[in-house]
Amino acid sequence: MPFNDNRIEHFIVLMLENRSFDHMLGFSGIPGIDGLTGAETNPDTTGAPVKVSNNAQYIGDYEPDPGHELFDVNVQIFSNQQATPGTAPPMQGFIQSYFQVCGDPNRAKDVMKCFSPQTLPNLTYLAKNYAVCDRWFSSVPGPTLPNRSFAHAATSMGSAVGPPFLGNLHTIYSVLNQQQVSAKIYYQDYTMALTFKELLGNQTEYFGLYDDFLNDCKNPQALPNYCFIEPRYNADDTGGAHEPADQHPDHDVRDGEALVHDVYTALIGNPEVWQKTLLLIVYDEHGGLFDHVAPPACVNPDNQNSADPPFDFTRLGVRVPAVMVSPYIKAGTVIGTADNTFYDHSSIIATARKLFLPDWQNTSLTNRDKNALTFDQVLNLATPDNNPMAARAVALQAHTAMVAARVAAVPLGQAPPSSKDKPLSNLQMDMVAHASQAEQQYLPPERQTGQSPADIQTEKQASAYLQNVGQRLRGAQ
Predict the structure, then answer these.
(1) Fewest CB within 10 angstroms: 21, 65, 82, 348, which?
(2) Is the full-model pTM beyond 0.90?
């Protein structure tokens, strides 16, 4: 079918976890972005200023996980739990907030650590050679599940915490499907969208595994028009070791870098797909890590407020990385600061509607995506330019060196370190609770796992449980 932009037939979204813009790209050196000078500071527990640094480690900086519930974010950006409505957040409480979690004044300073561009070869390469948005904010100043809910439905139905149980959400997938636009969520061990009631009757149509995405990229007719890719959230050792690729602290960031590499490689590997694709790589929220840009005000999506904790959804969360990739994007494109605009996860939905629906202005899900800016203006070339791919060799060399160094660090004859026996993070506990609620609501007793969330203590156990529930919800067992 003809679309509003005949250059694009596939819109792919890869949403990773819990890293701020400054943390990942602040030191990237991309011309025109609102990044870091190296002089930005936050006070430590004694009041002394601590500067940002470019020495973040792939793993080891953030155990325990920095706080990112609403009260934590209030401390990070307003320096108090109550926030100060009507005032610009000073963004001076990140160390204070992490100290409340870790109890160590020296470790608390680690939230000021950021990555150098050399340590993130894939994300940095794509940001430099295609487009980057330096004014993309999480939709909620809170944790993962409400923010991912906004990516799927432009609302969290009044929930500012995890896990919200969002069975009655109206999603972009059904909106597109109703107008014969194919849409699918590809996941590895779990997606909260498995609990969305309107998607339950069409599991094969709306859901696939990540390996299915890789296979579908080989066939333009098989690859849906709209694809949402979920990373692996938990380590396991079923069928070979699988490490989480979500980049959630304190998972190894290199596994997420590898996922970015693999998604991009799958798309460019088929010219028929690549010449018709827009890829967005974005993060759901900042994970408690430093960023210097104050979040803006926004509209309440649906007149639903959170009572506990109190929140009215009229301000966005902290800034996150957002990188757009397409052969129709001129290398070095920057949006956000460059054109005085800002975006949140509802912009994903607004852009999908604008790309694919003839009456896109009248198909919004909530007031949030109705008012959200689209980012299709990054498609600033009339004909595809594959010159950025010539520079791919440089990024590939850096990626290969990163992988080789990681392998070399493991003593001969020993297995590489794994997260499978780690205790669960708050996100993983939320996902387990979410899945437990889903199976109790949607599955008859004889089809339920019978497992209690209290018995799931490690990532390996969480991975097995989440995949089990997912298979049951999809009717695979």
Answers:
(1) 82
(2) yes
